[in-house]
Design brief:
The protein is α/β, with parallel strands linked by helices and about 350 residues long. It contains 10 helices and 16 strands. Strand 10 and strand 11 form a beta hairpin. Helix 7 packs antiparallel against helix 8, helix 8 packs across helix 10 and helix 9 packs across helix 10.
Length: about 350
């Protein structure tokens, strides 16, 4: 049976405005310059001020929308805390700007903070050679190799400087906001230590990118960890969240719309990746590069941004299958990896 999200609200807040989704919890939406053109952010009433959960990407348009919110919904009240679920630019892009503006602490998992700091300090000169080696192994054509220079060291273009100090939150720990406890449930695979935030009292789960109602979050192998196993970690995280959250909470995802039916969606994500793994094996009807498999799995036209995400996802599935012993990998003399079904 096909999963259908149970969306709770009709429409979404306009830019610079909010929608209350539960007592003391407000939804706002910011634009993104990608095919996936928006991100949902969350404002939590916090005593005499506010706690912000995720920040949006670092653009003048998003900063202007925040300025409108400061004077409007937020009523000139201070920001007490900035919580970031993970290091990706649409989530952490304005963390530094907001923390500096309000002298507010940044709260996030240590691995996410470290990755964000590292990537912000990186530049093209120090990363491009590693990127080229990684994508050559994946079977990039000369035309695709020509796009790598635009990707290496690109993180800093979309983020304000990540604060040099922060407060760590770890799996199972809670942050108190407005007298209520929000417990971190770690998710892995989409990012190294993604913070989902669950308030049992409010029956609300801020799921970030870890659980989305309509699409599977990107689960990719990246050049920084070329032998990574993100899909294995993501599948394990589905079970972790399943056991950590009871009942039927209101789920607040970073993309699409708030929904109910968390456990049905987790089952659907599990089934999706089982099916996708089988499709990946089927695509290996002959020895193939990662790029060969990519084009057999992704039938639609992909832009440059989507192509890098797609090869990362393809490699994530191939690596998981390697660990299961369902496929094998051999390296050609030219340094390109070839994948085949196990005999």
């Amino acid at each position: 049976m096909t999963y259908t999200p149970d969306y709770v609200f009709e429409g979404e807040p306009a830019l610079g405005e909010t929608m209350q989704v539960a007592p003391g919890i407000h939804w706002l939406r910011m634009p993104l310059p990608f095919k996936l053109d928006h991100i949902n952010l969350w404002l939590l009433e916090d005593g005499d001020g506010w706690t912000i959960v995720d920040t949006g990407i670092c653009t003048d348009e998003v900063k202007a929308a925040w300025e409108t919110l400061f004077k409007g919904t937020m009523g000139g009240r201070p920001v007490n805390k900035v919580i970031v679920t993970h290091f990706h630019p649409d989530h952490a892009g304005l963390a530094g700007w907001l923390c500096e503006k309000f002298n507010a602490p940044l709260i996030m998992p240590i691995t996410e903070w470290t990755f964000g700091r590292m990537l912000h300090l990186d530049d093209q000169a120090h990363t491009e050679a590693g990127f080229r080696s990684f994508y050559k192994r994946a079977g990039f054509t000369p035309e695709l190799m020509d796009t790598i220079g635009r990707r290496a060291g690109g993180y800093k273009k979309n983020v304000s400087p990540i604060p040099a100090a922060f407060e760590r939150i770890s799996d199972g720990e809670s942050v108190k906001v407005g007298g209520r406890d929000w417990r971190m449930i770690v998710g892995r695979g989409h990012s190294p230590e993604h913070a989902c935030l669950y308030c049992d009292e409010a029956q609300v789960l801020i799921s970030g990118d870890q659980v989305l109602p309509k699409i599977s979050p990107n689960v990719s192998v990246w050049p920084q960890e070329p032998e990574g196993m993100p899909l294995t970690l993501f599948i394990q995280s589905i079970d972790r969240i399943r056991h950590a959250v009871n009942g039927d909470p209101l789920v607040l995802p970073s993309h699409n719309w708030p929904f109910r039916g968390l456990h049905a969606r987790l089952d659907d994500l599990d089934a999706h990746h089982v099916e996708r793994l089988d499709e990946t094996v089927a695509a290996l009807y002959e020895p193939s590069t990662g790029v060969d498999v990519l084009y057999r799995l992704f039938k639609r036209q992909l832009d440059e941004h989507q192509t890098f995400f797609a090869i990362g996802e393809t490699l994530a599935h191939l690596h998981h299958l390697l660990a299961q012993g369902r496929i094998i990998r051999e390296r050609r003399d030219d340094g390109v990896d070839m994948y085949s079904r196990a005999v």
